UniProtKB/TrEMBL annotation:
The chain crosses the membrane at residues 7-29, 35-55, 62-83, 103-120. Keywords: Membrane, Transmembrane, Transmembrane helix. PANTHER family: STAGE V SPORULATION PROTEIN AC-RELATED, STAGE V SPORULATION PROTEIN AEB. It comes from Geobacillus icigianus. The keyword Isomerase does not apply. This is Stage V sporulation protein AE. It comes from the Bacteria.
């Protein structure tokens, strides 16, 4: 019974935190009339800043997928990789670390986007 409660709590907090990140993005577009590109940029930078301050990893530990799925996690991954590689390789690691950590996700997006373009016809 205890395991079931912890799993339900994990799902609940992932839903709440992920939902709050999405609500923030929606408010940026609806209330402040920002474009989706501006909103995306703000959320990525917010994730990067939170990682730089050491706040994003505790959020991931608390909310799990609720913090790793939204776009803020991309900013977190960029800074996390850059800081990790900078410790090993200095200033060059700042650049290579960003690419190393995010390359799998970006590659998957390109491949699946290409497959989707091959399989489906755009409406026009």
């Amino acid at each position: 019974m205890e395991v079931r409660r912890s799993v339900l709590a994990m799902f609940f907090w992932a839903f709440v935190v992920g939902g709050l990140i999405c609500v923030i993005g929606q408010l940026l577009m609806d209330v402040f009339k920002l474009t989706p590109a501006h909103t995306l940029t703000i959320l990525v930078v917010a994730g990067a800043i939170l990682n730089g301050l050491g706040l994003y990893e505790p959020l991931i530990d608390f909310a799990g997928a609720g913090a790793t799925i939204p776009i803020t996690s991309f900013g977190n991954a960029l800074v996390h990789g850059a800081m990790q590689e900078a410790e090993k390789h200095g200033i060059v690691g700042v650049l290579t670390g960003m690419f190393e950590v995010t390359s799998a996700g970006i590659s998957a997006a390109i491949v699946f986007g290409f497959i989707g373009a091959l399989l489906f016809r755009p409406k026009g």
